[in-house]
Amino acid sequence: MARLLKGAPVAAAISAELAERVKKLRERGVVPTLATVRLGERPADVAYERGAGKRCEKLGIAVQRYVLPEDCSREALLSCIREINEREEIHGCLMFRPLPDPEAEREVCALLNPEKDMDGITRGALGDVFTGGKGSFPPSTAQACMEILDFYGYQVRSARVTVIGASLVIGRPVGAMLLNRCATLTMCHIDTVDTAAHARNAEILISAAGCAGLVTREYVSPGQVVLDVGINQDQDGNICGDVCFDEVEPVVEAITPVPGGVGTVTSAVLAKHVVEAAERVMKRELVVK
Ligand code: NAD
Fold this sequence. Notes:
The chain is α/β, with parallel strands linked by helices. Helix content is 44%, strand content 15%. α3 (74-86) packs parallel to α4 (102-111) and α5 (123-131) runs parallel beside α7 (171-180). Nicotinamide-adenine-dinucleotide (NAD) binds next to α10. InterPro entries: Aminoacid_DH-like_N_sf (IPR046346), NAD(P)-bd_dom_sf (IPR036291), THF_DH/CycHdrlase (IPR000672), THF_DH/CycHdrlase_cat_dom (IPR020630), THF_DH/CycHdrlase_NAD-bd_dom (IPR020631).
């Protein structure tokens, strides 16, 4: 039976450390504040907004929710981002993506103040991820994968890691973060020939394809650590990952569940980013004074 890499203990460890930091900020009159921006009522966005909001508020982080109609004008969306940029009491922003209009999404990514970018959507943040810079915040889900590996004690340095999925949201940034930590990386995507062979060869397999049932017995080998990032719906409408859990779990050394794995850690990482953003602002203000 594989070791089950649950997200809850990882998130709890992150949260425990944050509670103390939030207390210190509040004692100095700073309430760390996150703005979330959602267009429409997509169930995955609503669920993430609820989960992340609950975690933040439990930790003493305020959450301001901006909800716009799915068909809102580009100008309405951009003016919402401008407002978030301008409001000093807001330290961080999370926008649920993808947006229905990819051009509008590009404009938002260009407009958002990089210091308030909690999820690595701006060019500056992605640049830092790829150059190993420390100035901004990486995409929370990519960071969550690294937190899970570290928490459960799996060494990244020199390890053969295969990532399935090459989006800018998860696959590419987590690949860059693994490379920054000296992993030996293989990236697979929809046009990769024989993804199963690349996956089998890995010591750590990260699947972020968004494809239910993709990772079957054929994709894995004994001794592997498998992180399932996918959040999909099965034929019965239940949440599931990319991995056929029942086939894969008996073979591998360790595996994250879905739900209750990577997604649980993602919201804790988001909270950590907001606290850090608030601390940076507070430190800057202390220097100015
Ligand atoms: P995306 O559609 O933007 O990218 C998917 C990537 O996977 C692409 O690079 C594509 O080429 C590749 N891919 C798709 N099918 C493939 C296949 N059969 N074989 C090999 N490669 C394949 O998706 P995304 O935004 O990167 O999200 C991926 C998944 O992660 C989704 O299920 C999403 O819901 C989930 N997600 C999870 C979290 C979390 O916190 N756990 C957060 C965000 C997204």
